Predict the structure.
Amino acid sequence: MTQPHIRLTDVEMTFSRPDGAGEDIHALGPIQLDLRHGEFFAVVGPSGCGKSTLLELMIGLSTPTKGSITFEGKPINGSCPDGIGVVFQEDASFAWLTVRDNIAFGLRRMALDRREQDERVEKALAMMGLGEFADVYPSQLSGGMRQRVCIARTLVTEPRLILLDEPFGALDQQTRLLMGDEILSLWRKTGATIFLITHALDEAAMLADRIGVMSSRPGQLIDIVETNWPRDRDSRIVEEDAFGAVTARLWRSLRVESMKAIGKKDARP
Amino acid sequence: MSGSGRRLIENMGWLTLAILVIWQGLYVVIGDIALRSPMATLKFTASFVTTAQFVTHLTETGKAFLMALTIAVVSGLAIGFWLGIKRFASDVFEPFLIAVYSVPKITLYPILLLIFGLGLSAKVAFGAIHGIVPIALFTLNAVRNVKPVLLKTARVMGLSTTATIQQVIFPSALPEIFAGLRIGFSLTLIGTLLGEMFASQRGLGFLLMNAIGLHNVDVIVMLTFLLTGFAGIAGIALLLINRRITAQI
């Protein structure tokens, strides 16, 4: 399979100011990126570098000003293609539905018979450790559990490409490490391609096969780091020397960019 | 939920008792010139509500109120949803709605009377304009406050606009919309009765105005009692439903 799973060609995004005055804001790009089938790719970058804009482009919520994005060979324009699933940073669970109905929400509009749907929901409940909470409402769950509901809701549609936009951003460090383990085991079980956006270097270093480092605005990929981790890995990888080396290299690339992002003019490499 | 519901009804029981005690106390102080005792009112009410005259007026008011409420709810929700979804339109029209909300509607009544004439339609229109604005304002804010990430989720799942409104925006905004419906309900009732009091030949409002003219204290106190009772019971029922809806969220 030589065709990339998703391909970004010369993607650029420019926002015009809402009042029409002043210069347009060049938010992103140009970006070239090919994701291989089944790889775990992470993007790190300083805040405001256009990570979330990049994600919105990849799921068709907005259209790039220049360049094109193709998913499995077909261009994305205007809507999210079947086969892509997203988990957002904010809690996106539906407060008025039980956990089970939340998970089934996206399935209900797919052409599947009811038994198949129910089986998938049960499987996702079990996989995300939500079995005993199937009939409660999200308000009765912790933030971490609610994020699991959102992950499960995405999983049941069996996406071939899963985009994660800082899905653990609101969680505490310990929970994040454990959620990382779950994402890894899920990645192995489903065989899906995963694209993770994060601002946590250690998270990227621990989870991904390849890590793209983004510059401050306009966001461009300034480095791509290969981790060479075995496919069968977990959060204990943080103990290894190679992990420290990866994080160090990421920080070396990012330090200047992060300083720019917080407005330090005399940033030196 | 059933626990808090039971406590609410228990509290209402105590409140009723307190009102009866204060009422009796006031009666002792003020006397027959402007008030009747709770007992006398209950007796008078029991005999009066069975008369054909009362039933005619009650039916008239009930009809006007239901029509006004239907119009207020339907157009209030429609305006609220439309403005809530269209950012620009809501920026333009929200200040107007707030201005209209604070205008004493009674100043508009002469105009309504000239448009609709004396009778049912003027009352209905007057009741409805009381209810539309709060329902529209609450709905507008409820729709605008739906979390953007939920709308993004709907788009990623490929939901159509109609499906997004039905399955995401409406349920997400429902608790706040319902608060608007509760206020709209009370204001529509006030509007309908006011309409009847100032220019009508039928309905409970007319009956009340008539009784004031004739200094018929029995009828005045009875009508006050009945209307307060109705508004109170309806208010509690709506509050209970509201709690049920918000319990999950």
